[in-house]
Amino acid sequence: MIVEKSRASRLQAFFARITKFGWAALALVLAFLVVGACTIGGFSSPGKSYFAAEGSSVVFYLDYQTHEGETGASPLDRVYLNVGAMYASVGSDQEFEFRRATASGNYTSGKFISSGMGKVSVGNVWSAGGEGISGANYNWVKVFDFTESGTSVGSSYKLIRITFPCDMLVNEVIFVDEAGQVIPAYVHENDVRSFIDAKYWASYRDLFSGDSRRADAVNLVDSQTLVAGRTTYTNFTQDEMYTLMQIDDILAGDRVTEGSFVADTDSGPLAVLFPLVGTLLFGKSLFGLRIFSVLFSAALVAAAYFLGKELFGKGSFGFLFACLFAAGGLALTVGRLGLSLPVTALFAVLSFLFMFRFFARGIDKAHPVRSACSVLASGILFAFAFAADPKCVFLLIGLVALFAAGAVRFVRAHLAERRALDAATLGAGEGELAASRAQERAALHADYVYGSKLIYLFFFISFVVATALVTVLASLPSYATYVRLYDPNPSEPSTGIFSLLASALGDAFRPDNITQYTASNASSSFGWLIALKGATLFSASGEGTYIALNAQPNLAVTVTALVGFAFMTVYAVLYLASGGQKGAYASEHAPRILRAYFLLAAGALSSVLQFAFTDASAANGLLFNFFYFGFAPLTFYTVWVHDGSAPSKVLGIRMNFSAKVLAGFCAVYFVLFALSLPMYFGIPVAPGAARALFGWTTFINNGFFRA
Length: 707
Fold this sequence. Notes:
Elements: H1 2-16, H2 20-38, E1 50-52, E2 57-62, E3 76-86, E4 93-101, E5 113-123, E6 141-145, H3 146-149, E7 159-163, E8 168-177, E9 185-186, H4 189-192, H5 198-209, H6 238-250, H7 273-282, H8 286-312, H9 315-326, H10 341-361, H11 368-388, H12 396-425, H13 432-486, H14 497-508, H15 516-521, E10 522-523, E11 535-542, E12 545-551, H16 555-577, H17 590-609, E13 616-617, H18 622-629, H19 631-641, E14 648-650, E15 653-655, H20 657-681, H21 687-693
Antiparallel strand pairs: 1-8, 2-7, 2-9, 3-6, 3-8, 4-5, 4-7, 10-13, 11-12, 14-15
């Protein structure tokens, strides 16, 4: 009974510590998670894939159906193709050859004809020459529409043969009749032989059993669930295709390929493992690929609240920080796609949060190990961030600066204690008091040495050892993939894991803008600093509508943060120039304000340096956007704590002048957020409405952004 009461009291105490802004932040995180999960697409998956070798063919037998009200079988109307990884250079056009034949009489080599069908050119991820279909990988692409083209394909043509131009994975082929129903299709001899006259079967058998890989050809028709559309809710984006290619390669099995090994070299080995788990749980679907990104983005919103509360000491400003980040533009766009950016950003932000705790709180002599664990946690989280994106090595600039400042504060605190002890020892003589002071001095020195060893040991273990260990472990699946697919002797690999890892890490510092979107979005890192250029992640238009997913930070918040950064920089310079704690700008709030400025500046500077020397997409600014937006609440907090105006009631809430100004700014932020919803969620709107709603937010045209 006593134990139960103790547990109940602890639980009550825990909930009592949660403030109203804490509950509001929890509601915000849950709302972000629910909205994100409900707008990332469905669970429809093309099922397992079929590996097609270059030059190989697959023949489908179509079992045309007679629908209610029809006198005969409904003929073929449309053909959809869903290809996966194509082992060819990105941007190259690959020609698929489609031929048709009847299943009557004996089979002869000239039975297949191309009349009404023929060759279809598909770009690998995208078509650099503009001749092929772009964005085809992992999406259902309509390769034939006979009604639209005015071609008639009678139901007597029951055999469709597809010849593949290169080594590739093919997820699904779907045939639809004029009634809009999926025509049952079969590729295995056990399924087909019952449809063909027994006296002719011997001549057709090799079409369905001759290929040594025919056993997995049934994967071409294992799902037959068609989800074809032109929005991010129904289609994968081009950048997501790289993630799916990596997933397919890791799950490659024992096949051997010829051609290009395609991987997202812009990221590290850990980046693909989280979406891999998502696809294993929910299938190779939009939801499966993107759900972990939504989870990490929602966690980033929570991290914004906790960091804001840590920086400003008030849940209200932590909640403001979380709101600005959640609705600021990038979290709702790149944060909802199957990309590595939310994963990297979360680990990086948490690493800064724990290092800031060490910097701000120092080492508690009563619990030195517990307080020094902030350094350990920071380093381990950095290890995961580095494994997700090796360019995070630039974050060490900010993290080491925080660690060094914390170590200096620790030394100064020790010296201050020792000076105080020495002053108390003066004149004590050689009696018992002097001996006691000497023991205290020895104990003080021992605590200092122990604390110093702890922080430096934890720093080495986490930032060096853990980073190397996590990166190597995360690279094992990719290394096994490379050896299995490409090494001439997988049992005795000619390439070691460390040499392959070194090559992969080097590639991460040379991003390839090899989709039509990242190439058009390419910009110097300072392009996102004032949000002059947005990043289009998906775009489609037609029939008088404009559909896009545009990563564009909220312009009002961006400008506020820019002004806030300038204002706080001037504040910091004047504080230091006027004498610091003894100067004209000294106040009880100055230390907290300057510590917050130090963290945000260190995070923003080190994150922007990740892409300062590469032509990166503006979408890569998610981590920078997090720290940069933090200057807005920092500015409001600085003005608020120094505001001596008398508060008055507004709508029943007591507010001083700075709080009223903040409310006005938040109203402007909300209006721009509401206007930007179509470009954040890819909502179809008329081109004129798109220009009025968000076309004015940037004057730089990336080729897709403007309607």
